[in-house]
Design goal:
Largest sheet: none
Radius of gyration: 14 Å
Number of strands: 0
Helix content: over 70%
Distance between the termini: 14 Å
Number of helices: 2
């Protein structure tokens, strides 16, 4: 793997962790909407579903 690919993968991982953390925090602040763990897991699954087809290509 080239260093550019590794940097892009690192960036995607950091953005995914930040997004999942944000969704968990948002669900924690508004617990009537959903449980934080379900929202964070759903967000991570959605991000993975969008990124994996691009990464495999």
């Amino acid at each position: 793997m080239s260093s550019l690919v590794l940097l892009v993968v690192l960036l995607l991982v950091l953005v995914t962790v930040l997004g999942v953390g944000f969704m968990a925090y948002l669900a924690h602040r508004h617990p009537a909407a959903a449980t934080p763990l379900v929202v964070a897991t759903g967000g991570a699954a959605l991000m993975v579903a969008c990124v994996v087809p691009i990464a495999i290509r």
